[in-house]
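Good morning,

Both structures are done.
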Amino acid sequence: MGLTRIMAAGGLMLALAQPAAAQGFTPPEGCTGFMTVQSRGCRVSNHYRCEKDAPGDQWRADFDQQGVFFLSRIDSEAQWVESYEMFPTVAQVMDPNPQDPASFTELLGGTDTYAFGLSKDNGERSEVSGFDRLTGRTVVIDGIPLEETAFEFTETSIGGSVLRRARGREYIHRDWRLFFSGPTEWDAGDGSFVPVDGSPVQFIFPGEPGFAATQPIFDCDAILSQSPVFDLLQRVRHDQ
């Protein structure tokens, strides 16, 4: 990834972190927002696409009560292409030539496995492996039918130490080619699993009240003690 792209993404997040961002999310020039998702766990996500990206690429900007904290891009197979954490800004990219590329198309057939590497611009590297599997169950959230998946993944250091693991349920929308969080158990590497739930509650589209919102509205009091765990979960998963 070029330095220009890193600087542009970092500049976008810094701009969004300003108080004016409370007036609404504005995607970068050449990009168009298409959906805002208010989720449990005190998170709101703004989804957008950019003209200069490859066909099928999609971006997501995640906000908590303090502002934007995460920015990510996936491709048409829902592979995690690049992401940016805030304060300080750290860029992470998927390593080339993954051992087992994630495939949304394969998942639609029932099950998808994956194994790939991630590299941060601070020199840290890790490896992720796991699976997604359709459960056959459909749920309707805010009028939107979503297919439920079961998943497990493990992220390890290059030396083989477990950094984090997660297991649980997520949701997909096959036409949007997007994942959404669900009830999950999370292990930050100490062997004990903690429950978290970032399930979507509202899907908001252009022209509807709440579109481009940057303030989350669900579970924001209850989630305070869990937010570090929840934030980490979002940074290793490609779910949206």
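Second structure follows.
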Amino acid sequence: MSAGERVFHMQCKLEKITMPEQEYQFHDSRKWRFDFAWPEQKIAVEVEGGTYAKRTKSRHTTGVGFDGDCEKYNAAAENGWRVFRYSTKQVNAFIAIRQMKRVLKGCHAED
């Protein structure tokens, strides 16, 4: 688990939201996984690491990696998933957890 993923996981606990499944495989024929997922609501969170790294390349910032991410996220959307993507900086600034609280609250309001 990356540093950003650890922080988001801890924030979920602290904010007492329904704990997401981690490394959830959402596609039957591909091994694609979401960092965090609420499968019943088809909501996922991806924490994109390496976005501010100066010396290391994240696979998300290479052409091939970016293409792969596009394929993954488009397949998720095609299958009804809402995928929220955050940088580690956004997770650390509580942007991710605040938005996910609003989104998940909206899902439960329909129940």
